[in-house]
Amino acid sequence: MRPSLATIAAELQGYDPQALRVNEVNAFLSRLAEPVTEHEYLDLFQALGRVLALDLVSPISVPAHDNSAMDGYAFCGATLSPDQVLKLKVVGTALAGVAWRGDLGPGDCLKIMTGAVMPHGLDTVAPQEMVTLQDEYISIPAGILRPGDNRRFKGEDLAKGQEALLKGERISPAALGLVASLGIKQVPVYRRLKVAYFSTGDEILSLGEPPREGAVYDSNRYTVFGMLTKLGCEVIDLGVVRDDPVLLEAAFADAAGRCDAIITSGGVSVGEADFTKAMMKKLGDVAFWKIAMRPGRPMAVGRIGNALLFGLPGNPVAVMVTFLAFVRPALLRLMGSKAPLPPLLKAQTLEALRKKPGRTEYQRGIVSNAADGSLKVRTTGNQGSGVLSSMVQANGLIVLHHQQGHVSIGDTVDVMMFDGAI
Ligand code: AMP
Ligand code: MG
């Protein structure tokens, strides 16, 4: 049985829907969002960004053999002496991809290429540029090499039978390469999430409609589309829905029937007609929150049918901030990801920031490296929650925590980098 909102609320100490703190919102959502279980096998090129559904055990050792890390000469390290030049006869060449077979006597060495299998009995490689070659002999100066230098061990990346990637890991470009290095063509991943979204409001115009006094073009569907697509979700765009109970109910019912999550914008603030809220409540298990944060105070959360509902505020910046702070982590959890949230960075503020204790504030920031390499941050200026141009200029959000008050120039603040999230 999935827990009801009331059950989750009862488990959270001090839950107050009228004054929730940001960390309480995330704690609540992590209980509400239950990871999908179904998985499928995908070819590697299709698996980028998906979440691994089973631990992946290495079927081979990588590398499969001891091999050379350099182009140079392979020899037996025991013959090195700290104060004498070592002179060796070159009796053959070991190429990458072809195991060298032959007999080596004491005082013999082999020319070897990077990645070539270390011939039996040889354990050290003298890089080409360290030696002098004369006729068929090389001279290795004294004291520059130790036995075992420039040799890679069999299995030093991954040993056969070792866990290479763990369930819950999001498949990055590096992970793709790692899986490929194991000779594995397909990986088990959780199914993609389907997420539907629509914007609400009588004043919201779809692109293509002529401008009208008092009306604004819908930007939220585009930012939400972009952020969902970056997460690898399959998106269902349900357009703009008028503030009309019949239309809204139809949109919710349609969305809930065919997706894992529904994201709406607008219609949850204090000034909105109560019928929207009443209708959401009628359709599912929905709570209306006031979050101690800025921007983005009101939010509706819950379940309609099997779908999670995130009713975001209407203001374009508030939509993006609440998505980044709450929806994205919840969706990642739903996708089966076990990755912790990306760490906040510390940067020195180049501006004084006004801040009221008692709420978390997210200010749009531009983080840069100072000449000495340290991180500095300034704001984008106007922090109005409708000012989308500031989200375009920013490369992260300055996070001013709940208890924090005014910040002076030079103080260190936390920043949440957008990185790949938007
Ligand atoms: P609401 O939360 O519905 O009261 O909306 C708050 C503000 O955000 C109002 O100024 C709306 O016009 C604006 N807004 C709501 N939805 C959108 C949207 N989809 N695109 C752009 N602005 C919007
Ligand atoms: Mg509205």
The CATH architecture classification of the largest domain is 3-Layer(aba) Sandwich
Average pLDDT across residues? 95
Return the CATH topology of the largest domain: Molybdenum Cofactor Biosythetic Enzyme, Chain A
Helix content bin: 10-25%
Put simply, the count of helices is 8
Query: What oligomeric arrangement do these chains adopt?
Result: single chain
Main β-sheet, in a few words? Answer: 6 strands, mixed
How far apart lie the N and C ends? Answer: 34 Å
CATH C-level class of the largest domain is Alpha Beta
Strand-residue fraction?
A: 25-35%
Would you tell me the structural class of the helices and strands?
alpha/beta
Principal-axis shape: elongated
Number of distinct beta strands? 26
Name every ligand kind in the structure: adenosine monophosphate, magnesium ion
